[in-house]
Amino acid sequence: MSALVRALALSFVVVISARAAPVATGTGGAVATISARASESALAILNKGGNAVDAAVAAAATLGVTDPFSCGIGGGGFMVIYLAKDGRVITIDHREMAPSGTGAQWFEQDGKPIDFDTAVASGAAVGVPGTVRGWHEALERYGSMRFAQVLAPAIAVAEGGFTVNQNFSTLLGQNEKKFRQFATTSELYLHKGKALPAGTLLRNPGMARAYREIAQGGVKAFYEGPIAHAIVEAVNRPPLAPGSRVRPGAMRLADLANYEARIRPALHSTYRGYDLYGMPLPSSGGATVAHALNILEGFDLKAMPRAQAEHLYLEASRLAFGDRNAYLADPEYVDAPLTGLLSKDFAAQRRALIQPDRAAPGAVAAGDPYAFQNDPSVPLRPRPSVQLAPESAHTTHLTVSDKDGNVVAYTFTIESWGGSGIVVPGYGFLLNNEMTDFDFAGPHPNVPEAGKRPRSSMAPTIALKNGKPAFSIGSPGGSTIITTVLQTIVNHVDFGMPMDKAVDAPRISQRNAAESSIEPRFKGSAQARALEGFGQRWEAAPEEIGAANALVFNPDGTVTAVSEGQRHGVGTALVQRRGH
Fold first, then answer.
1. Which of 71, 169, 287, 561 could form a cystine bridge with 396, CB 3.0-4.6 A?
2. Residue 563's Cα: distance from chain center in Å?
3. Taking 50 as the threshold, does the pLDDT of residue 17 lie above it?
4. Which residues are catalytic?
5. Is residue 342 part of a domain?
6. Closest CA relative to residue 59, chosen from 393, 392, 401, 394
7. How many other β-carbons are positioned within 10 Å of the β-carbon of residue 355?
8. Is residue 381 one of the residues assigned to a domain?
9. What is the DSSP letter of 153?
10. What DSSP line would sit under 142-177, residue for residue?
């Protein structure tokens, strides 16, 4: 590697001596991530004069090392950026893309959809990764540093190693069966076929090598160089352990070379005096959060008993998901009726279906946003959709601000825990299984097609009030991303909860089903029993929902960074200068 890249990496070997905690308030820049090392990387870049975009990429690269089962350069994501100087919000869509050999029957066999878990652990599950292209566009257009500088902290962590904690070891244990199928993955993350125990020092020289090549060669090193060849080989001929068999993919070098990120206008909505900016399609997150809030805006939630308000939150989410599932997909392939869907009048029509004292007994039918579309270019209404495939719940979110007032909310992923399970030989990163975010059978707007981006639920959000940043919020969690962001906004805006309390509160998630997802802390509580009085029902197995990160811009000019205080091993929030 070049002397510059080595010198930069060495300068980040010493860990910053900042107190790791899930909440911090101060001035200057701020960062919240689920990983202490990632937050430290972002703060180091801010302290070296980088802006929020530079710091976000540095944090993301480090998360690829310390949180590799949920994110990394083998995947893709969505970045929302507030540019303080211009007073505007833009987004960078670097969602994974279906390879050119893909068709609508990609996950069918003998005319029937294949088993979901079989589809996940395969080369066929891998979409063309978009993360590195997204980072490149962010740095070139809105950053002040280049790859050699912002990747240096992650290179130092990958080379020097980090100590595996219990959360990391537990996630490994959940992936043992998948990881044992691939020789390169077993070698890196398992010992004698079992998860590495907590306390293990884990080094990843392959990922350090990948980052060094990108630092030296830029974006082309990933999409056209040896890394690209290694990706294609791993997808089409997965590096199997003896006795394993999985479905191969059909990716070409041209698929990587031709991949483009999209700079898209942010999706804008309003809620109780806030201007909310989120991701447009192909992420359904921004639209579905906005639609649910439009429905809720017609209720005076503040004046209601908590159980009544939470009942309405669940029912609004149910209706919003009914519409999301029917209409939303990649806008380059489907003319989704987005104007109608986000209409306040359509929200009022949907709101009228909610019974204030009784939950709907099950899934609700989609509404008809076309009546509110006012757009003659939109085609005839689509046919009713088939049952949707499950959506994996494993992603990561980070958020960063800088001393100049720029803000980044960034959610990125490799899809399931551990993605496809395939570690690229020689380069140490896991490949995504994002193709399983398509629906396996049609008719449906979200079936696989060559070059298409699968619908996502990622919902990085920046809220402005009176034209200035008020807060940012986002989370991992598959389709529960939408409800985590929605519930946190309701907690903060309607219930007046400080953001750390809004994030830590027990979560419930209704996604147009007979039963809602529920967290263990919520099950059996007085709050749960009160909602049961409205007819709300819960899934039998409670589980942790999401892992949010947020920033709050306080009236006195300070910023409060908030990460999880309960979930995913507890997150880390850092500020450049702590307040008193």
1. 71
2. 15
3. no
4. 395
5. no
6. 401
7. 11
8. no
9. H
10. H-SS-HHHHTHHHHHHHHH-EE--HHHHHHHHHHHH
